[in-house]
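In this notebook, the sequence line spells out the residues, with the fold written below as integer tokens. This is how one looks.
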Amino acid sequence: MRAALLSALLLVVAPRLGLAEEVEEVEVKQVSRGPASWWGEAHPRLDRAVNLSLAQTTRRLSLQLTVDHRTNQPLGENTWHDYFGFDAGGLKIGLGLRFGILDWLDVGVYRLNSATERFDVYQFDVKAHLLRSERHHLDLGVRAGVTWFSQEDAEDAAGFLAALLINRTFFSRLTVGTGVLFHSDSTNGVKSSLDTSWSLAVQALVDVRILSFLSWNLEAAFNVAGYGTRGKRDASGAELTSYPVLSSSVRFITNRHTFALVLSNNPYTSADGVVANTERALDKLIVGFTITREWNF
């Protein structure tokens, strides 16, 4: 009753005191709250779907930490005893940092450990967000960098990466994207030093924001030139089939944090490991997770 009387009094008195404009501003602000706030300052600005990059960069003067874990043993092989593969060995662990220099430019460093390979991967790159969908109807970014393959008992190697990235967000809920990826010294589970070193792939991705705290991601990288597993044989001599790298995740989003549960047919998370296709079919899926944390300065 008191609230109703106060509201009626405000409607009568406000025009005489010149408060009508202020009341209208408050109402506009309330109406503006909605799905767009899902991408607000409290939520981290992610620069990738699962493993594949988006055109967006990290916020200006923000630091983002990424922790990746991927198993090597496929699901269904002694799953319970080996805790879904996490206790089976060959675990790939990635640690990355990205820093936003400007609102459209960031730099990153990423390390992926050796597991079944003899080398650790150190990746250094820069990404620029050149076009924005608010003005140009799509987001376009370019990414370039170098990869250092560190080996304990052999000579180190190096390569370079480049990517053209395109994506668009619809209704603040659905992001779709594509792009072209290149690496001069690609990696996968069966590649040898005698194989063609470089690989070129086309990417595709979908990110669906289901709720303010929940999203679902699906991505694929299709090798189109260079090395891509074709013609390789396994230890028994049987010819291997080349499959695109497929990954999907369910991501939980909180203030400055995300946690994603991942299913994939590829344990590699660095740029050299997603351009060369994989010998693993969809009945050889592995699991993993990704954690991100963002700090703003």
Notes: Helices lie at 2-17, 20-32, 133-136. Residues 66 and 292 are 5 Å apart (CA to CA). DSSP finds three helices and twelve strands in the chain.
